[in-house]
Every structure is written in C-alpha cells, then in structure tokens.
Design goal:
The structure is a homodimer. Chain A is of the alpha/beta class. Chain A has 10 helices and 11 strands. Chain A binds chain B through residues 108, 124-130, 132-135, 158-161, 167, 169, 173-174, 176-177, 180-182, 187-194, 196-198, 203, and chain B through 108, 124-130, 132-135, 158-161, 167, 169, 173-174, 176-177, 180-182, 187-194, 196-198, 203.
C-alpha cells in the first residue's frame, strides 16, 4: 500500500495561513501586532539563511520583525546587554538569538539571560521545565512542529508505542516528554533509544510511531521498521551530488525509498519536519502576545 | 538465588554520615552551616510527621533548621509574602513548602514563587528544565534518591533497558530523564509506561531495571518481571492489618514475596525508596550552599 506522505510543507503553510488570519483579526480589533526579533551574531552562511527565512515568514503572516545584526567580535558582556535591551523593549513580544554563537561566548548563559516570557525558541530551562509540568509554555520548534504534523493528519497516538531515536536537548528529549504526556498528541508508551542502546532493531521494530533524530544519514532501514508504522524523519544532511545544479542533495536519517512502502505515514526530507520549525516559531510568538494579556 | 536487597535505610544513613562529616569540615573552616527552612501550613497529621522528620534529619547532620508554622486560614497572598521573606533571608540556604496546601491556595503559584536558587525540593520549573539540560541543579527527591541507590550498589545502567512505570511530575517523568542522560547512573534505553499503555506485561518483561511508581498496591507480579532484573519500588500504601500494633502495615506497588526470587536487586517497602527522600533533601541543601559560592 502507498503510505500517506506527512508533508511539513503543507502543514506549515496551513499554520501560516491560520496565523495570518489571526493577525488580521488582531489588527481589525486594534490589538498589538506580534513582533519577533532575531539576533544574528556574525555572518555564517547557514545562520544568515535561517534568520532571513524567519524574517520573511514574519512578513508573510503580518508580524512585525526586527533583525539585530552584531559583529562576530562582540563580547559576551555586550551580547548580554543586547539581550537585556530586548527583554526590556515592550514592543518586542519574543526574540531568538541565532545559534551557533562565536566560541568565546557561553551560549547557555545567553539562553538563560532571555526573559522566559519572550523565549520563543523554547530553549530556556524555564520553558523546558514548564513543558515537563504540562503548563502553558513555548515548546522547542522541532518537537512542537512534529506534534502539529501528527495532529494535522489525525494520527492516533493514545496507547501507541512511540520510539524516539536520539536524546538531544532540543529534539529527542523534549519529544519524548511531549509524546508521553496526557494529551493529544500524547498518551503514548515512549521509548528513547540512543548510541548506547543494545538490540536497537528489536526496539525500533516495536514502534507504532518512530521519530528519528540521530543525525546519521540513511541510518534507518526497512528491517528496523514495523509494518504499518508512522515514521517521522528529523534528520537533514547535505550530500554532494554532481547531477544536481546545486551540487548537493538533501537526505534524512531514514532510507525513505525502502522504508516508505512499509509505512502508514512517513515524512519526507526535504519538505517534512524542516518547514515546521518556522511555523512553530511563529506560533510561539503569537502565544507570547496571548500570555501577556 | 537470593536477590540483593537495595536498602534505602542503609544508603540514606551512609549519605547522612557523609553530609555530617562535610558539615564538620565546613564548621572547622569557619564556613556557612547549611540552613534549611520548612513551611508547614495547617496541621495535617502526615504533613506534620514529614516536616518533623526533615527537621530531625537536619539536626542529625548538623544543619541549622527553621520550621515556619502557618495557620490553614492563611491567604495565598500572605503565603506568597512568607515565601518572599525566605527568598530574601540570606541566612536560609534552601526551603520547602510542605505539600498539600489548603485548597484555596494555588500550589503551582507558590512553587514558582520560590527563588530557584533555594528550591531544594527541585519542583520549580527552572530546576526541572536544568535537569533536562544536564546542568547542575536540584533534583526532585525521589528520582535523586533512586539514582543514589543504584550508585551505592554499583548497579550497571549503561545500555540497559530501564522501564519506568508511571509518568507523574515528581517521580516518573524526571526519573525517565535521569536514566536516559549521558551519565552514571544513566545511559539507559528508557521506556515510560502508564495507564494508557497496551501490552504492559510485554514491555515490563523487557526491563533490566524496573522502576515502579504507579501508586497501586501490589500491582507488579512475578510474571511481569524478567529473570535477573533490578526492581525499585516507589509505592507506599497503608493497609489495615489488625495483627499489627499500629493497626496497619505498609505495602509497595510490587508483590515483593513473589517478585524478589527473580531479581538480582530489589528494594523493599518499607526501608527502600522512602528513607532516601530526606537524604536527597539534605544533599540539595548542601548543594545550595555550594552553588552560592
């Protein structure tokens, strides 16, 4: 049977449309238009692309946005002062500091300096702690995006066995918390596997829902997946490919071609989880405005 | 084969002795003697017993302690003011507000009002978030106590399958985070099961380490446990028993008599996890002093 393709592109577009409508409504009522700021330190190519994408998405949905560009030579103290300025600026509802930062800056220190009320990346310990407690909070973009994908396709989760591959702070670990909690999506039996796991295949084959975030291209093969499973691929890797105009192609953590025929649902790379992260950021920014009131 | 009994009584006594030695050392150097405060609202019998136990433990290890007794009619605003007084009091290194609080008080609001630097119960979102990020922090007493038990008996965890039964905010959920992280104890493949889990037995039988915190007396039977497993029982239930002078006996979530013969290690009830919670609180209070410097 052909699997249903879980299209992050489609879901993220729908979410952006919904947000744009909500912004129109806010405007018509004379309310505060959400305003996202992004701090970019230096001019790393990928970071510039990401930040520009975020600014463009703000324009599309009608948010205000501010891009704060800073020299890569900025000191930690100076960057902390910039963060504090954004914390104090009532016009800014939420902001992000684009990662990675230059090596002389302690990234965790910067994250913790952000006012939790404006932490739309959801990386502040306060946000993660509230998530663990099931309180309203900013969810980290990737896990949040995945729950939105599951919701959009109405994929059943209650009582299902969800196996999360990877235990990173920004994907695997929060993902496991979200899938176990008493909510939809959620109420799964959740297993977290990682580099130290023994009998990996034996466990992944139990998964009704397999969420793959291990950062190894094409790692998941068809023998690791149960018939009828839902597979969500978080990986994204640039692989050199002379046959492409760009000189590369994008691959996920999953061998899509051989895994897809076994699946009920599967997310592709590109066009799967990737586009969801900006949609999550926009949703968090809108939430920041709502939680203020 | 006889299983090894994981005695929380023994481990907690050892920890208290170590802390007492450290306090002696601090005193000999003219340092700050750790000072724990406990807030008790009303006179619920169990709460009085718990709080007195905490104060007594402070005395034993040489900590200073303060018991703040408040009337059950206290308003939320007044209690928040008491919390703020303790936040501001430099003499107090850490404090707890004994749960449960009267119904007219929002317990979560009180928890969040505690200065995270003094949150020795580890229930503040900031503490849980830091735990998720693997940062130095106050761990919630029960999961912290269980990791100390595993450490004391040198029970191998890396690559083992740990099944956590229960997903509460103060036990199951943080326990799963601790067992998965890259540390000892930790580096387990971790599965969280709960009331919505299907094929429960099939999953618990995979556990090398089974941590049971579901609050159902005698729920875990021998057919749910793998030969050679380590079983940690968090449950504690008072069951009426006329043959006892007290009129009751204590039972755990595990049918000890039939499960024990299959185990490599098993914790009893009473004398298992129970005594560890106060030891954790003392460790957190000592940590509060250390993190201050």
């Amino acid at each position: 049977m052909e699997p249903i393709i879980v299209s992050g592109k489609e879901v993220s577009n729908k979410i952006k449309d919904e947000i744009a409508q909500e912004v129109e409504l806010i405007k018509s009522k004379g309310g505060k238009v959400p305003h996202l700021a992004a701090v970019l330190v230096g001019d790393d190519g990928a970071s510039v692309t990401y930040v520009n994408g975020k600014v463009k998405a703000c324009e599309r949905v009608g948010f205000h946005s501010t891009l704060v560009k800073l020299e890569p030579t900025i000191t930690e103290e100076e960057l902390l002062a910039e963060v504090e300025k954004l914390n104090q600026n009532d016009e800014i509802d939420g902001f992000i500091v684009q990662s990675p930062l230059p090596k002389h800056i302690d990234e965790q220190k910067i994250t913790e300096a952000i006012d939790p009320k404006k932490d739309v990346d959801g990386f502040h310990p306060m946000s993660l702690g509230k998530m663990m407690l099931g309180l309203p909070c900013f969810l980290p973009a990737t896990p949040f995006g995945i729950t939105e994908m599951l919701r959009h396709y109405d994929i059943p989760t209650e009582g299902k066995h969800c196996v999360v591959m990877g235990r990173s702070h920004i994907v695997g670990s929060p993902m496991s918390v979200l899938m176990v909690r008493n909510a939809y999506p959620g109420n799964c039996t959740v297993t977290v596997v990682h580099s130290r796991t023994q009998n990996l295949k034996e466990i992944t084959r139990q998964a009704d829902i397999l969420i793959v975030a291990i950062g190894k291209p094409q790692f998941v093969t068809s023998d690791m997946v149960k018939e009828g499973a839902t597979v969500i691929d978080v990986g994204i890797h640039r692989i050199a490919d002379d046959s492409k105009k760009s000189g590369f192609r994008l691959l996920g953590d999953v061998k899509f071609d051989e895994v897809a025929p076994k699946c009920a649902y599967i997310s592709p790379v590109p066009g799967g989880v990737g586009p969801m992260t900006i949609a999550s950021l926009l949703k968090n920014t809108l939430l920041a405005v709502k939680l203020k009131n």
